[in-house]
Amino acid sequence: MQRIAITGSSGYYGRKLIEHVRRESPATQLLGIDVVRPSEVAPHEFVQADIRSPEARTALTNLRPDTIVHLAFVLNPIRDNRLMSDINIGGTNNVFQAVRELRPQRFLVASSATAYGAWPDNPVPIHEDWRLKPRENFQYAADKTAIELAIKSLAEELTDVAISWTRPVIIGGKGASNYLSRFVLNLPFIVLPDGQDVPLHFVHEDDCVTATWMILEKNARGPFNIGPQDCVPLTRLAALTNRRTAKLPFWMMKLATTIWWGLRLPVFDFPPSRHDFARYPWVVSPARLQNELGFQFRYTSEETLLEMWAEHCRKKRG
To answer: Which long-range contacts (CB under 8 A, 24 or more apart) does 82-86 make?
Structure first.
């Protein structure tokens, strides 16, 4: 790979991927596109542009990359669902059009394990051929499911491009800082919704970008779950982080968060629809990644959680 364009290059996933590419392939030219200027590791060239804009398309056209990686999404919930969807889906459609015009050798999109939805009949673990069923009331997950339907059509249309998409679980590590990490780390006790010991699934930031790089290197196609083989039940999470558990009715959790979110109070910086993903499992199987590409995870879910917890405690002491 000689020229890689990364949208969302200043975000968590983007920064870690740039670091990885610089180590693994120093000769590769990197273009970053983001609304936020890079503050740490920067690409060789950076264009500050909204992913929905003509400027973003122009930047891709000028570079004529052999590889495009699309990571520009709104992850943290905002109160304007229409705007969030316009950025996530509208921005992705803008990149899709650039891919149609430029025909790069490879195109990878970051989807999410949330695209499967959080449902009581989800198997543990979920394989890539399991149906996608969106939780329409949780905007981020619904957007990811819609994008996946579109990217499958694009892959059928552009058979000359190696089109792939990743479905990572909760990405963690020292650099993790989003509403998911805050939900896991900041609460004084761990809530068991309806008394259920729901499993959570974490992938280390380094494993996530290493897997992404391997998918690109091998010109792999289609969806790839990214998550190690173990998961962390809520009671185990509590034990590892020296916290107590409390059983609460699911309706009570949702009601409390509805009030909290509505009053714009701190702690719960997500809408009540997020709780479906705390009540029902969305643990994935990495079978394709391991069996087809030979990928091996360096970190377990527990090790990733413990690294996040240690960094959280360090910052708290500081």
So the answer is: 84/139, 84/140, 84/143, 85/139, 85/142, 85/143, 86/52
Q: Which amino acid is residue 214, in one-letter code?
A: M
> What is the residue type of 301?
S
167 contacts 115 by C-beta, under 8 angstroms: yes
For every residue of 242-298, DSSP letters joined together read T--EEEE-HHHHHHHHHHHHHTT-SS--S-GGGGHHHHS---B--HHHHHHH----S
Q: What is the mean pLDDT of the chain?
A: 92
Tell me the Cα Rg of the chain: 19
Report the C-alpha gap between 158 and 95 in whole angstroms.
14
Mind listing the domains of the chain with CATH numbers?
3-172+202-229+283-301 (3.40.50.720)
Single-letter amino acid code for the residue at 32: G
Neighbour count for residue 60 (Cβ, 10 Å): 24
Question: In the beta sheet, which residues pair with residue 164?
Answer: 108, 222
Peptide bond into 125 cis (omega under 30): yes
pLDDT tier, 261 (very low <50, low <70, confident <90, very high otherwise): low
pLDDT of residue 131: 95
| Closest-CA residue to 312 (of 206, 180, 201, 191) | 180
